[in-house]
Every structure is written in structure tokens, then in C-alpha cells.
Amino acid sequence: ETFRWNNQPHDFEVPEGETMDEVCHRVFEGIKRVAKDNPDSAVAIASHGCAVRALIRQLRKLPREELKNVDWCDNTGVNKVIFYDDGNFNLEIENDSSHLSEDAKAESIANWNWTEE
Asked: Which of 19, 53, 63, 74 is the most buried (most CB within 10 A)?
């Protein structure tokens, strides 16, 4: 399973849980619902890295097989998405960590080796 998680995450499924396609669909539909329920508002949403990674893949309109090429966001990385009334959207900011100190950036998930077993 470690191989699949690292090399084919689009085919990964948590035992007795969701596939990555299901995670992507759930997160994307959820964020669209929040945007629809809060027109003309700025809304902050916090989530886990796996969900954010799946969402970034969807927002970039990449094929599911490209999930492996979407970097993990930094802890507290900021992503800004603009949703329009016509259903379109724009990923305006991706993984902005400029608010972090250099020490905090060094501890970022991007520098962890836990996914490379």
C-alpha cells in the first residue's frame, strides 16, 4: 500500500474508507456548497493535507492520474479560490506560506520524509 500511496495515489483506497476520487469529489462539492451558501463573502476553510491535495488537483482541472504530481501543501499553507456565480472558479493563490518564519518553513510537511518509506 505504501507504493500505491506514493506512486499511484489516485488508485489508493483507505481500507473500509474512501477512494481518492471519493475524497476529491466530497471535498470539491463541499467547498462549492460553502461558496454558494455564502455569496459575496470571504470564507476560511481549514482541512487536512490529503483533502487539500485532492482539491488542488481538481481546481487545476488535472486528470486523476496527475494527483501524484500535486505537491503537499505546507502546514498552514494558504490557498485562495474565487467562485463565480456562473459556477466557474479560479485558483488564485496556491500554498502561500509567506506568513511562516524560515524555521517554521523548514519544519513544513514538504520537508518530511514519512511518505518515502
From this structure: 53
